[in-house]
Amino acid sequence: MQTLTLRDRFRLQRFTRGLGPEAGPVRLDRSRVFILPTASGLLFAGMLLVMLFGAINYNNSMAHLFTFLVGSMAMVSILHTYRNLAQLSFSVGKTPPVFAGNRAGFEILVSNPGVSPRYGLRLHSRRQPAVTLDLRGQHTGTATLYREARQRGVLPLGRWTVSTRYPLGLFRAWAHLDLQAQCLVYPQPAKERPVPQNPAYRPHQSGDRGRGVDDFAGFRPYRPGDSPRHVLWKAAAREQALLVKQFGGDRADEVWLDWESLPGMDTEARLSQLCRWVLDAHRNQQAWGLRLPGHEIAIASGTRHKHRCLEALARFA
Amino acid sequence: MPGSGTLLSARTQGWLLAAVTLVVLPHLPRLPWWITLLAVGVGLFKLLLLRRSRRQPPRLLLALLTLAAAAVVFFSFGTLLGKQAGVALLIVMLALKLLELHTARDARLLVYLGYFVVITNFLFTQTIPIALYMFVATVIITAALSTITHSSEERPVGNHLRLAAVLLAQALPIMLVLFVFFPRVAGPLWGLPKDAYAGMTGLGDSMTPGAISSLAQSGATAFRVEFFGPAPEPALRYWRGPVLWHTDGRTWSPGRIASYSRKLPETVQNRGEAVRYAVTLEGHDKPWLLALDLPAQISRRALYTVDFQWLSYRPVRERIRYEATSWPRYHTGPLDPQLRKAALQLPQQVSPRVQALARDWRARTDSDRGVVQQALDHFHTQPFVYTLQPPLLGEDPVDDFLFGTRRGFCEHYAAAFVVLMRSAGIPARVVTGYQGGEYNPVGDYWLVRQADAHAWAEVWLPDDGWLRVDPTAAVAPERIEHALDLDLQAAGAPARFRLAESGLLVRGWRRLQFAADAVNNHWNQWVLAYGPQRQLELLAALGFKQPSWREMALTLLLLTGTCLLGIALWMLLRIPRPSDPVVQAWQRFCQRLERLGVRRAPSEGPLDLAMRATAAHPELAPQVRTITDLYIRLRYGRSLQDSREVQQLQQRVRHFPQRAG
Fold first, then answer.
1. In chain A, which among 34-73 make CB contacts under 8 A with chain B?
2. Among the listed ranges A171-175, A251-255, B81-85, B370-374, which one has the minimum average pLDDT value?
3. Which of B167, B319, B582 to mutate: most A Cβ within 10 Å?
4. Mean pLDDT score, B237-249
5. CB contact under 8 A, B530 and A61
6. Could you read off the pLDDT of A59-74 as tens digits, one per residue?
7. Where in chain B are the domains?
8. What angle do CA B567, B571, B576 make, to 5 degrees?
9. Closest Cα partner for B237 from B282, B275, B278?
10. Counting Cβ atoms within 10 Å, is residue A312 exposed (0-12), middle (13-18) or buried (19+)?
11. β partners of residue B431
């Protein structure tokens, strides 16, 4: 538990915004959880007041007793509301990168170290619909919070809130958290545009792996759009996988995707275009390299390489 | 968690229906038949809706129905306020709201109305069984509120019920603190509806033939008395109520004797032992504070009338308790001339027969005392009958009774006697009150019922002052010794009295009744009669002499806070341990690793954790390995747990270093 000075403890900011960004798993305790009555809790209080006046007016002992019973129950329910949040531990799970223009999902791991279950936990971040969660004792659950990724770069989730109205909905307990969750936002892919072929391409002994039509190069699994003439029907008849014959020329290009090849465009447009090319190159199973001002990624291929390039585009300053 | 916009599940609606039914049920017999019919009909219809479809009646129809129902309530009660009409309206609204359950907000409103209906039940009856019933009903309503707040398929029905029961059980100590220490204000805060005190019985402020005999057929409790010493003998147990001076021949009323003081006049002298006792008086909507004849002191702020009666400043509308001192043997001293005049007042018409009778007695003796004695002899020797259901009397009730029917209840005898005395020139008046009482051996107190209501006479004699004369005793001496047996009265027949029963069963039954009344008495005294007065007494006993509002508020806050803190500590510190010893041992191991700087990630399995731990602390590698292996085998292995292995695991964990170095 983080120790707070008295002055810190009474800062309004803690109440409205929480303790600010912090790393790692956070366990909820007294210094983080706040409780206030809900609107229906206030209505309940109003009803109690009317009941009390009725009891006094009619000098009715049982009405007094019952009003006090229901009022005390409301008071006790505060403790239950608090306990529903107390000791829960939060950490950031997976935050897969997204392209700009999509929603970024931040997985939050919520673990309940206690034995008693926690009901009706609500997680929400700014104006996004809340995620509700029930947790059995000694269990860890996940909730995914979303945020619109408008710009490429590193998108922080920022402050989000976990709250509960358990058990009677009369009080709401909440804690503001900011676990420094970040999501990488790749540039939004631009429209199709031919890759400039001017940078070096050289003959390669493995050829262009199926892009040409001249020589038989091998088999590969069927993909929608393949010509039926190339399907290996014999294998299909033997109920093996659907394979197609691959043909290729001897022209294998290793593409350099270059910042400088897109003159006269602004930075974001260039990055978007490069992003598109990276995706196309990967889809076409090409090998490619990426050149950015001050940064170069050597020619390679594969999913890891793709993400490395996209990350470089996302983080380009 | 359903927000205010989400639809309610059928299960939640079922809970609501059950809760509402429970709280409305005790009201049904008190309501007009058409509301009962409406409530039951709506309940059944709702049940049908729950089973068949989710379609609800249209809102406009419901709004019109509500208005119509409110209008009918208004026309059948003449008001929308008041106890009866208010409850009727509340129940109509509750029933119709049941049909308009769409969202969580509707459901919450219904639940809140339900809590309210519970309270209104207490305006009609506050017995122990009703209190218990309402507690159970409250558990159900609260469970319904819990299902509205959070409901999931995985959460069983019992979970909501248990939660509600736990919440209410934890609320009990705080409720007790609030009940005892919350500053009580004497109500009412504003004018109460006219029917607020309907149904209170007790002595009226006037007397007509038949008034007391109708009261005497009620078995309701008038008051209970604890004597702080031996109880006075039956012949002295006259509980003084309103004194009636003025008569028009039929009705007796207090007249214009309006003279009050704060204490007993000094002319009244005690001629025997003072009797001290405490009275728990039921509310009767009149100011009289019943006390043993002759009342001397009282522990409440009250006025003392010139005819020896304590009056409360306000009508007694709730059960109150007071201590009093009485002088069963007394001398009241001289008679004020004005009072003498009032005590000789006669109706416009006194029949010649009555006048002749009085004159005859007067002529035969030279003392007032002799006249009184002759009158009593007259009642004793002539064929007078004491009956609870006397025949109706004609134009001149006194004449008709004395010379015609000769059958009457105490009020007939008292009225006739006083008229005769006044005709003979002896100042006399009618006193109403209660006579007798039944001893409850279980609770050691006396129970005085409305059936013990009585009327007697007082005459003023020069030697004795005001002297109590009970003409009924001359006719039916048993009346003074025994209570009327209400079960055995027949029209016109002589009254039957409750004599000692001998049957074992009867005695057992009586004993049970005594025990029940004793429990009721404690409930009355400590729960129902707990008001401003009782609170002051209790606080004084606790050491608060003159508690100020601030002191009270502080005490209240402190005690409530202590209770809440206690519950909080109990709830939050008593962390339930997992019951599986293997899991327990593993958790302990993880805690120790954490202290060594290896913190288990939430999703980390035992093998990964062991790997990191070994990397961080190579010197502990063998121990970490053994513990991890044991844990994996016990927790995930196919075979049944071997208790020796469990012990081994626990032992290893215990010996695992607590901190580095």
1. 40, 43-44, 47, 50-51, 53-73
2. A251-255
3. B167
4. 89
5. yes
6. 888 999 999 999 999 9
7. 10-150, 211-334, 581-655
8. 155
9. B275
10. middle
11. B243, B456
